[in-house]
Amino acid sequence: MTTLAYESGINLFDTSEVYNCGSNISVFLPMHVFNCRRSSLVITTKIFWGGKYVHIFLSSIASLDRLQLEYVDVVFANRPDPYTPIEETVRAMTYVINRGMALYWGTSRWNSMEIMEAYSVARQFNQIPPICEQAEYHMFQREKVEVQLPQLYHKIGIGAMTWSPLACGIISGKYRSGIPPSTRASLKGYEWIKEKIMSEEGHREQLKLQELETLAQRLQCTLPQLAIAWCLRNDKVNSVLLGASRPAQLVENIRAIQVSVHTGSKCN
User: Locate the NADP-dependent oxidoreductase domain: which residues (predicted)?
Assistant: First the structure.
């Protein structure tokens, strides 16, 4: 999967201390297979709740050890810690960067006020501010990326790295007739997805998908490709993170790039 992504031109790999039960070594297969330079890849990791350590510095050391890297390009604070002052988080991230363990730091699932406070604290105490926010973004979740983050971009230069372009698989259309076995919504621990699908809002989204399917057919692409291309067409989005469980699924998702390039207008 990683080799396929790299051969297709993808060079950003997003990891976390909880992904694959804390093991992310396979992410770096391309460097060994193609003998590519580390500088040709953008590697990110997220820290908050899944590691052995609760301190940002120690968690960063543990992440680098698992990844077998000297540094990551961006380390994300995955959610604000309600029990830690934002100033402490900013100082810890600055320390990690100054030690050469990361080039930049960012936020994930932070609201606009929290991001702005982190920026203000960094400027006040001569620390390093965050450079981007990882935010959920898809056709059914738009406000943060389209309304809130652009304001922060114009004020302080915050970028947007978005995730879940298929809304946890909902926009793929596979839940139209219920919850198929072996899908994410059928697994233990993901009951919240099932509840979302079966809710009144979920039923309204399924009706919207029927209209989107018609549009996808007109554009000669699949529904997932349309959804990903729609995210890519937003010029305020710097990167769209994909998640795939099979090579064929990844190939289909990557073809969304051509859909995005060849469609002349955005799908509003």
Answer: 4-259
